[in-house]
Amino acid sequence: MSKAVKVIQANASNPKLLIALGIGLAAGVVILTETRRRRRRRANAAAQRKDFGAFVVRFELLPFPQPPPPAARLPLSSLTFAIKDIFDVKDYVTGFGCRDWERTHEASEKTAVAVTALLKNGATCVGKTVMDELAFGITGENRHYGTPTNPQMPSCIPGGSSSGSAVAVAAGLVDFALGTDTIGCVRIPASFCGILGFRPSHGAVSMIGVLRNSQSLDTVGCFARDPSILHRVGHVLLKLNSMEPRRARRLIFADDLFQFSKVPTQKTLNVVNKAIENLSGYQPPKHTNFGQYIGSNVPSLKQFQEPSSNLQNGTSTLKALSSVMVSLQRYEFKTNHEEWVNSVKPKLGPDVSNRVLAAINTTHENMKILYKVRTEMRAALQNLLKDDGILVIPTVADSPLKLNTKKGLSAEFHDRIFALSSIASISGCCQVSIPLGKHNDCPISVSFITFHGADKFLLDTVLDMYSSLQEQASIASNSVHLPDTNGNMDASELLKEKGNAAFKGMQWNKAVKYYSEAINLNSTIATYFCNRAAAYLELGCFQQAEEDCSKAILLDKKNVKAYLRRGTARESLLHYKESAEDFKHALVLEPQNKVASRAERDLES
């Protein structure tokens, strides 16, 4: 019998002592419970630090037996991989990143076809990874399981929805990992975490045993640090023949899309251009304004463009394309999961909750037009790329956001990232995101896209170019930029006048040339930069126009034209907030300026 019980029995007639003992016992229970809770929290935090918070559950699925000699060694022997918590594994509940989903569903009876294929080829699966709830986010944050830590930038989001898989690879916890890509859910985290990310052609990899978000957009995708591993995994998933004749490659740079990116083209376009100079089998690169091309070759997109939009040179077309992608995802998610959402009313994080609510409340009278855009988009890409073309674009436009951003994702962040991710999502084409080092301590990347069904061609190209790309990225990162030099004042004014004459004659490139020569001679005149910005706007070079206007404003803070032109450039780059500030500043300087007033009204509407 314990001492506490003996004391209670001996003093049963003393109520005050009994009350004191009861309070003491209760306090002891509270302290013990709190101590245990703190220990669990510390243990969970330690476990999260150990695996970067990437995993929902750890287990081990061993590979199928290696066939005896003289059979060849299995292609994925000795490699480990993780899978997003959207893939079925026999005897485990597929959680879909959501506790309420896990609670309301039974354990799977079979393992997903894609996972089984990897096991059959020698790889070992070591667990399931964290994801955005219901695969409906792009940040990688999860209120139930925590947010995986981005190894490249621990204070920033890893990107999603396949966040845990990307982090597991970037942290070196596994050799490769599976995710799914709907609206960028592999490509975005690959870029933010500085690793390779592959979205195969739509329908090329089996989705049997994978939970659906939007079946017209969903694909199985994968991450890797090593291009040779990505190549091998891709061959297994796609069931490719390893032997195929080598063909010439033709890179096509989407110049207008690189205007969205804040990374200097020296670290992206120039790196790719330099990388192919010493490689055989590559034709001289071509350049295109992709937004204009799509606007001309996907006629059904016109129904999704804003009637009052004053965006130039294809930007409104790309916004329309991303609008189609979001609408299609919402419609199909509602079809797949409306009954479950309404009956369970799951507890979701704020960003995902808003997306799910928008999907459930969506109404589309004419869904056929969405699928028509998809068909036209695939045909347009096939026509552009033929059988040897590879489109080069930035994977993302912005750096990863800070964790727990209170204001959430801005409209312009969504617009810019979806304008890029919608190209492969809507067309169903294959895409690989390729890391190219860092800019201002943030990972940067480019993406290669080729036509639907050319997955082997794309993977072979990435494997062929990867070493050269990394070499050139390192050179670009370490290069030093020389400042402009001042020159003769009279000569620079003469060049400015020549630039003005070329501008009036609508010879935009020639105008840029003359203004640039004037700047090289004298870089202290705001008008030179402001005039060159006007020519850049006409050419659709919005980033260069923005930079020139910023330089003009530094030289002359009362230059109204510089604010107006920078506002126009920023609006075209989907920086709405900054654009509105420029137009407001112009109105402060010139309250009666009609251009600024009209532009400000358009942005507010």
From TrEMBL:
Amidase domain mapped to chain residues: 73-459
Gene3D superfamilies (UniProt xref): Amidase signature (AS) domain (3.90.1300.10), Tetratricopeptide repeat domain (1.25.40.10)
Residues in TPR repeats: 560-593
Membrane-spanning residues: 17-33
SUPFAM superfamilies named among the record's database cross-references: Amidase signature (AS) enzymes, TPR-like
SMART domains in UniProt: TPR (SM00028)
Pfam families: Amidase (PF01425), TPR_1 (PF00515)
Keywords assigned by UniProt, alphabetized: Membrane, TPR repeat, Transmembrane, Transmembrane helix
Designated name of the protein: Amidase domain-containing protein
Originating organism: Quercus rubra (Northern red oak)
Lineage, highest ranks first: Eukaryota, Viridiplantae, Streptophyta, Embryophyta, Tracheophyta
